[in-house]
Amino acid sequence: MTILIEELKNEHSEIVAALNEVKKLGILSKEGQDKLVSVQTSLLAHLEMEDDQLYPALRKEAEHNKDLKNILDLFEMDMEDVSAVVREFFDKYSEEFSGKELPEDFENLITALNKRISNEEESLYEEYEYMNK
Asked: What is the pTM of this model?
């Protein structure tokens, strides 16, 4: 496994574990909200790493690989949706985590991130590994 993919997978595990901890603590609790703030920082750093290191390499390879191009085209639409969910959640709750919609919005955030993580690990990370053999 390449160093990049190993690091990204480790970060996925850490992000999922932290989100599960927030869920266990309760999104309406001070402890849960403090944990969520720390998740926000690591999540944004993770997304930046993917945008800077993973996706440019995949796009370059896709110039010569129609199957990969098709996968990336589908994935980019989904990624934009997930990124929008993440941005909207943290924008909406940038001042404070409160309101009757917070639990549902948090569940939507978890669902979107879990879907993205699963899709990345099952398809894009494998493509990246294959490219770097």
From this structure: 0.88
